[in-house]
Amino acid sequence: MTVHNLYIFDRNGTCLHYSEWNRKKQAGISKEEESKLMYGMLFSIRSFVSKMSPLDMKEGFLSFQTSRYKLHYYETPTGIRLVMNTDLSVPNCRDILHQIYSTVYVECVVRNPLCVLGKTLQSELFTSCLDTFIRALPFFGVRAA
């Protein structure tokens, strides 16, 4: 099992942070273009799910999977969106994404007077805490070839 990458977007679709760990294949485009594609896809999927759901969606879109990876999604009440791509064997990561937001993002960014909210995160403390958190996950590891 493994974690491939993590995106953090603000409510306007700006990519605040991107990290990758065990990603084998690159997209062949710039990271800026890749994050725009990711946010556009999320926007479309969320819209589709909300329109097609037979019930009132309390939690909304949580995840989807392809034949190669699983995308996990979490949106905070303030509009921060966390997206984690993992391999298929990883279970639902909603609680983990919530922990990343509440224990890493809030503690290292929101409560840090040196971090400007709404701007790309340049905090080494945040990056270090996030990396430590991800590497401590029970499913973090190098994928078998």
UniProtKB/TrEMBL annotation:
One Pfam family recorded for the sequence: Sybindin
InterPro entries per record: Longin-like_dom_sf, TRAPPC
UniProt key word Cell division: no
Coiled coil residues, start to end: none
SMART domains attached to this UniProt entry: Sybindin (SM01399)
Keyword Endoplasmic reticulum: yes
Principal place of residence: endoplasmic reticulum
Any one GO BP annotation for this protein: endoplasmic reticulum to Golgi vesicle-mediated transport
Location in or out of the cell: Endoplasmic reticulum; Golgi apparatus, cis-Golgi network
Highest rank taxon of the organism: Eukaryota
Annotated keywords: Endoplasmic reticulum, ER-Golgi transport, Golgi apparatus, Transport
SUPFAM superfamilies, sorted: SNARE-like
Gene Ontology annotations for the cellular component aspect, listed alphabetically: endoplasmic reticulum; Golgi apparatus; TRAPP complex
Subunit structure: Part of the multisubunit transport protein particle (TRAPP) complex. The heterodimer TRAPPC6B-TRAPPC3 interacts with TRAPPC1 likely providing a core for TRAPP complex formation.
Function: May play a role in vesicular transport from endoplasmic reticulum to Golgi.
Entry similarity comment: Belongs to the TRAPP small subunits family. BET5 subfamily.
Protein name: Trafficking protein particle complex subunit
Annotated source species: Electrophorus electricus (Electric eel)
Gene that specifies this protein: TRAPPC1
